[in-house]
Design goal:
This protein has nine helices and eight strands. It is of the alpha+beta class and 377 residues long. The strands form two sheets. Strands 1-2-3-6 form a four-stranded antiparallel beta sheet, with helices on one face. The chain has a four-stranded antiparallel beta sheet with strand order 5-4-7-8, with no helix packed on it. Strand 2 and strand 3 form a beta hairpin. The longest helix is centred in the first third of the chain and has 15 residues.
Length: 377
């Protein structure tokens, strides 16, 4: 199904505008009043800060006129301009001396000076209440380039990008979202030394009939490699492939990371073949999660309530496809379950107070308390 950029961005970003306070709906409507064209493909991203709180949602979409649209809506930014860039690696790790250094530098395949990087998008302007809206088009990259073996990310900086070719003038990386995860490297098979079969001596015809018992081969005990999350993939293999050794299902698609190597699906992608159906959903329904032409019954593009989860995905989660916030807790169903690593609050989309502390999940997110910990109030 092909939809206009204006309509697609409105549908995808509306739940966030409703859930996250302080954005200017009138400004969004004014921007969306501009002429639009049809969308051929898109990459969504949830941008989170170093504390794991959602700061923004982005949509990078290719269009039939050859351009790429970039739409971002954000909250809780300091008023003023903030540099915004596409980065060369699809990993958003806040740890380390520089937060989100894991995303690498700006996307710059032609080795240009700063200001002319393909990933240089300019600035997103935050208003006094911290809300910001950004909508630009570019022909500096296409979505297939962003899906290369390193993946890609989108980052918001603390300060304005003044296009200084001599160096960074835009401050710390304050929010990061994965547009495309790196393509995982399949763990190399561990060579197994062949076990020699015991040789039974054959008696010569003149030999007596004495039978020499042959000892059974002793089983060799092999120390198992550590597997912290018990997902069938060792911690070492997870480190090599970029999956989370403490999370048995890194991409949240319902298949354990180890099982994804059995099915040959991507353990960092909810939907490996990009057909709109989660990998586990395809396995359960008997379709091929690696073949976009093999899909369960139902239209994967239909999102009746506009909450970023398709009706088919909502059936999988048990949420109401006609209500953007099934449990009425102030968080959209998508905000609670997400579809990329680290993109969800982890709360229950069917329970308005996941930790049973008397305060709804949405109210806890707004108050910056932990909706999963009843002691955090």
């Amino acid at each position: 199904m092909r939809r206009s950029v204006g309509v697609l961005l409105s549908v995808l970003l509306l739940p966030v505008l409703l859930v996250l306070p302080g954005l200017r709906l009138a400004a969004w409507a004014a921007q969306e009043a501009t002429p639009s064209t049809t969308v051929d493909d898109s990459l969504p991203a949830i941008l989170q800060d170093v504390d794991g709180l959602t700061v923004a949602v982005a949509l990078v979409a290719s269009r039939d006129d050859g351009q790429v649209s970039v739409g971002v809506t954000a909250v809780n930014l300091a008023p003023g301009a903030h540099g915004i860039h596409v980065h060369e690696t699809g990993v958003c790790d806040p740890a380390g001396e520089q937060a989100f250094a894991s995303a690498g530098g700006h996307y710059n395949p032609t080795d240009e000076e700063h200001g002319d990087h393909a990933g240089d998008l300019g600035n997103i302007e935050a208003e006094e209440d911290g809300g910001a809206l950004f909508l630009e088009t570019t022909d500096a990259f296409d979505l297939d380039e962003l899906r290369d073996e390193d993946g890609s990310a989108i980052i918001i900086h603390a300060e304005e990008d003044e296009n200084d070719p001599e160096g960074e003038s835009y401050g710390a990386r304050i929010a990061c979202g994965v547009l495309a995860a790196p393509i995982p490297v399949e763990p190399a098979a561990t060579p197994v030394a062949p076990v020699a079969s015991p040789v039974v001596p054959v008696a010569s015809p003149a030999a007596t009939a004495t039978v020499v018992p042959v000892a059974e081969p002793t089983a060799t005990t092999v120390a198992e490699a550590p597997d912290t999350d018990a997902d069938g993939l060792s911690d070492a293999a997870e480190a090599e492939n970029g999956t989370d050794p403490t999370n048995p299902d890194s991409d949240g698609d319902g298949l354990l990371d180890g099982a994804e190597f059995e099915t040959q699906t991507d353990p960092l992608a909810f939907d490996s073949d990009g057909d709109g159906f989660g990998d586990n959903q395809e396995v359960v329904n008997g379709t091929d999660p690696n073949d976009p032409a093999s899909v369960p019954a139902g239209d994967p593009s239909v999102d009746t309530d506009g909450d970023l989860l398709t009706d088919v995905q909502e059936a999988d989660f048990g949420t109401d496809p006609e209500v953007a916030d099934t449990d009425g807790d102030g968080l959209s169903d998508f905000a609670e379950v997400g579809f990329e690593p680290g993109s969800a609050t982890g709360t229950d989309p069917l329970d308005d107070d996941t930790d049973d502390d008397g305060v709804t999940d949405g109210a806890e997110i707004e108050a910056e308390t932990d909706p999963l910990d009843p002691e955090s109030l």
